Amino acid sequence: MSFVRNLARPMLASSFVAAGLDKLKNADDTAQQLSPLLKKAAASLPFRTDERTLARVIGGTQIGAGILFGLGKFSRLSATVLTVISLLNTFVEWRSADISTKAGREARRSQLLKNISLSGGALLASVDTAGKPGLAWRAEHLAADAKKTTGKQLHKADKAVRRAVEQATGA
Hints:
Layout: H1 2-25, H2 27-33, H3 35-44, H4 51-71, H5 75-96, H6 102-126, H7 135-170
């Protein structure tokens, strides 16, 4: 399975890296397309920034997370970031697509399906433990082992106390 992961991660990441590079190169277009959302985001931030800067941050984040994911470093975290960015892009592209013609509607539908597929792949990757148990599984089994060990120790202590009491009373 490791071979498949080593092959699939860069394949999935390549689309995100290319899209991030495109966002950086065309920051003005990206800012215009994301304008409604970026205005709200810029207004809620505690510091002053413009839409173009936020578009570059999104592009840079997408590139960074895509590269990390492709290399298999922090793959669950980077896949989660890619999922969020992908869903944001899906919504924005769907909302801003030209639907005045039949060809435009078909292109919008194709783009939507592609983006949803990429989001789904990134979402699956965000929960992939690469064959290693996740934290929840580890914690659950650690608690069960501790309970079992504690039970055995209590049983031994109980036996020892009973023997000591028998010896003290029988002596």
